[in-house]
UniProtKB/TrEMBL annotation:
<feature type="signal peptide">
    <location>
        <begin position="1"/>
        <end position="18"/>
    </location>
</feature>
<keyword id="KW-0472">Membrane</keyword>
<keyword id="KW-1133">Transmembrane helix</keyword>
<dbReference type="Pfam" id="PF10681">
    <property type="entry name" value="Rot1"/>
</dbReference>
<keyword id="KW-0256">Endoplasmic reticulum</keyword>
<dbReference type="InterPro" id="IPR019623">
    <property type="entry name" value="Rot1"/>
</dbReference>
<dbReference type="GO" id="GO:0005789">
    <property type="term" value="C:endoplasmic reticulum membrane"/>
</dbReference>
<keyword id="KW-0812">Transmembrane</keyword>
<protein>
    <recommendedName>
        <fullName>Protein ROT1</fullName>
    </recommendedName>
</protein>
<keyword id="KW-0732">Signal</keyword>
<dbReference type="GO" id="GO:0051082">
    <property type="term" value="F:unfolded protein binding"/>
</dbReference>
<dbReference type="GO" id="GO:0006458">
    <property type="term" value="P:'de novo' protein folding"/>
</dbReference>
<comment type="similarity">
    <text>Belongs to the ROT1 family.</text>
</comment>
Amino acid sequence: MLLTSFVPLLLAALPALGQDIKYDLAHNATPIFGTWSTGSKAVSTGPGFANPLNQTFIYPTNTGCSYSFDEDGHYEIARYRFNSNGSEPTCITGVMNWVHGTFDLLGNGSIVMTPFGDGYQQIQDPCGAVSNFIESYNDTELYQSWRIFLDPQDGPKLHLFQFDGTPVAPMFQLSATPNMLPTQALRNVTPAVQPALTSQKRSFEKRNAGERTWTPAGLVGLVVSLGTACAASLIL
Ligand SMILES: *[C@@H]1O[C@H](CO)[C@@H](O)[C@H](O)[C@H]1NC(C)=O
Ligand SMILES: *[C@@H]1O[C@H](CO)[C@@H](O)[C@H](O)[C@H]1NC(C)=O
Ligand SMILES: *[C@@H]1O[C@H](CO)[C@@H](O)[C@H](O)[C@H]1NC(C)=O
Ligand SMILES: *[C@@H]1O[C@H](CO)[C@@H](O)[C@H](O)[C@H]1NC(C)=O
């Protein structure tokens, strides 16, 4: 136990991405580079989750989130989650979401993730007018802060806090070398006209997902895992 708490000190010499970033003990239990995944570790970035070329997904066996960061400033996110609606408890919306781009570790401790434009998501909304569709996802995401702790059992654990301070479920390190798709736009996208109002940012073209569908095995169990499961930026 005692020894474990000293490990961060030994790893203090980290490659700095920016001049003014101060890696303190709260960040550098291990570098942020690598692939991280929540809970059951069923979701991972990389070729096992998304096929951006034809905008399909490989559906994981369980919900979760995965983030990867490489040393050249690229990130990738894979998310599979369910959103419930308190007033319509039977209307459980399933979301498969994939995005990648470049990230900046800001001097004030925040992280900004700027997408390449080829991100997309599939929404299954049993109560929606269109119950199953695919749309572009190109939101820039700000994380207020982040921390990495060494868990005596599970090793490095990444905590990300969203723009409003809401925590993303803690993520374990799947590998110190990131498992990512090629770090460039992977299909042709025409830049959307920058919307004047942020409320317009979801006016993406929706198209029916057709045959592509998934059936959550245990919906009851999944409802329990709602909440901080993944980032709230997926709210429709
Ligand atoms: C999409 O691309 C992947 C990877 O090339 C392929 O395995 C899959 O069959 C394709 N799916 C469709 C519906 O075209
Ligand atoms: C929940 O369902 C109600 C009724 O269908 C709808 O008006 C409301 O916008 C939904 N809330 C969310 C967060 O989706
Ligand atoms: C850090 O700076 C960015 C950009 O100015 C800002 O959006 C973010 O809220 C700041 N983070 C904190 C923790 O103040
Ligand atoms: C995606 O977002 C980035 C950052 O805001 C922007 O530069 C880019 O043009 C957007 N791409 C598309 C296809 O909208």
